[in-house]
Structure of Class I SAM-dependent methyltransferase:
Amino acid sequence: MDDPRTPSTGAEPGDGDLVSWTTGVAAAGYEDRDMSIALQIAYPLVLRELGIVPHGPAVAGMLLDLGCGTGVLAELAAAAGVPVLAVDPSEHMLHRARRDRPHPLITYRRFDGERLTFVADGSVAAAAVCLVCCTVPDTAVLTALARELHRVLRPGGRLAVLELSPAGVGVRFSTLRFGDPGRSYENGELLPTFLRLHNGDVLRTACYFRSERFYRMLLAGAGFTDHMVRFPLVDQAAPHPGAALSRAWGAETTVAPYMILSARR
Ligand SMILES: C[S@@+](CC[C@H](N)C(=O)[O-])C[C@H]1O[C@@H](n2cnc3c(N)ncnc32)[C@H](O)[C@@H]1O
């Protein structure tokens, strides 16, 4: 098994070994991944960027979770009292989300991956897009999604985009690795991605590299303003409440695995 923490053997898998995100295998593996880093620094910060904090005043209106996967962020937002429309093109992901993370405040819905035809203009208070863009090979699809997000958000509504940090390419984080060490990647280039599962196996998936500048331009091109980008590190001294606390952290204490872009409609 490939271990994100061990040095590369040089025998990197070819594209054919990478699991497609639309498959049941990807959904099952993704559900079973070690989310320690994401729970520590990614999802809580995404929610904070959107003004959603535990026991805080609820965001007035609905959160759109675009590409909700197995529903982790949607569940956290609902637990904070926020109604969530959680959409994804994968029926396999939605099946697990509905089964494992049902909540009266969450509506899970399938969509075609490009158009939110069932969401009215300006009807959404905030939107989150977590680790979705990196799974989409086609830049035209990202452009269409960014325009849709701008359309459905109400004026002043906030968008948060969680993505793989370009600085983290090739770094062996304790639960994941994306890209080969020492290689640089062009925008849109395949980024082999390895996610550690709880049983010790590794889910090998296909992601696609994109730079911080690419994302800033994507959001600006769709009409978003007030862009900010954060590169959070795991802080051993100040663990996020509720996150996995007792574990040996690795490179994520010195290199950011994720970046969080936020912007305003
Ligand atoms: C890496 S998972 C992230 C899931 C979830 N947001 C999370 O943070 O756990 C990527 C998700 O993006 C979804 N996806 C793929 N293409 C998409 C598209 N065009 N629009 C929205 N979601 C898409 C996949 O089905 C998958 O559920």
Summary: Confidence is low (pLDDT under 50) at residues 1-14. Residues 21, 66-69, 72-73, 88-90, 93, 113, 130-132, 135-136, 141, 145 surround S-adenosylmethionine (CB under 6 Å). The chain has one domain: 15-264.
